[in-house]
Protein: DUF2007 domain-containing protein
Organism: Alicyclobacillus fastidiosus
Amino acid sequence: MSWFKNLFSKRVSIYISTNQDDYFRVANKLQSEGISFHTKTPFNPNPPTGMGYSSRDTQITYYEIYVKPDDEYRAMRVIHEKE
């Protein structure tokens, strides 16, 4: 786990979404502007189930985008630009 922490420790979280379409829209904007980013998506192979809940009901995937601190301002500007 320490390699994972080191990968993101020098990066700033700029965007979090639970919607895959929103994630791809933002990722495409960053990529088109040449801004390097990393995405963190949790994976839980054994989600809790039972008591009337299916695994589909309990699994919420979120996408968190990280950039270098030097790119934070530019990335935020790109993300929030009108299309």
